[in-house]
Amino acid sequence: MSLLCRGPEPWKQLQSPAVRQLAWCIGASPIVDAGGGLEWVTAAECREWLERFWGELLKLEADPRPVERVLSAAGPLLGKRFEALMGYYFAASADWEVRVANGVVSAGGRTVGEVDFIAEAASGEVVHFEVACKFYMGVPGARGAWGDWRGLRVEDTLERKGAKFAAQLALDRADWPRVDRRVALMKGWLFYPYRELARPRPPRGAAAGAPSGWWMSAEEVAAWEGREGLWAVPRLDWLSQVHEGGAGGPLPLERGGVVAQTMEREGRRVELSRGMLVPVGWPGRDLA
Question: What is the pTM of this model?
């Protein structure tokens, strides 16, 4: 029986980890879809992309080697893996023709910047995409300001990334096609302070369906009665909303990392929620 693209997370049906990550990168809701003076890719657009590409994903399930090669070439950095998977999608989808990929803009003999993708839709519309996958944690007491959402490195904030997107989307070159739309695409996760989950305060412009979890410090986890159900999520599996349910590893308490709160159900370990463990001293200390 063919697998159907139904439900909020249809990629959970896919068995190949590489293909499942590709499906998540295409179809998951962005974490931000407004703000910063930018146009953003919406959750509805992402869902449409996924539904129209679903048949290709099922073919890749039978032979995932093309996607596995893309991930192998991309290396371990999450941002590079996400960009590589989106590049695979734009190149393989019948809905797009890639006109520029990783295009460099130079001036006066120096590099000014680089664009991610310029692609032409079947309608003839030419779109400049800047893409990113980010894991942002809200500082305690955050009220929605983008500067209060920090990444794996403390200098990486949602505010700075929005400004970088704006600069990249302004890049152009005379030998490139004329662009009709310039849009930002930011996938990833938003992690709220565990003690504020009862009244989470998302960043301004957060997408309604943004993948969301919680974060705790190492000290809080050590005192938490539910810690026995926490399993470390391997870094290469962060681009998915499915926990593999393998043996798991020791919790990354010292440097921090993504964990899954799990339970046993019908002989399988099922992920209930996802969190980020942060070291003592965060947000003044990098997690990456």
Answer: 0.92
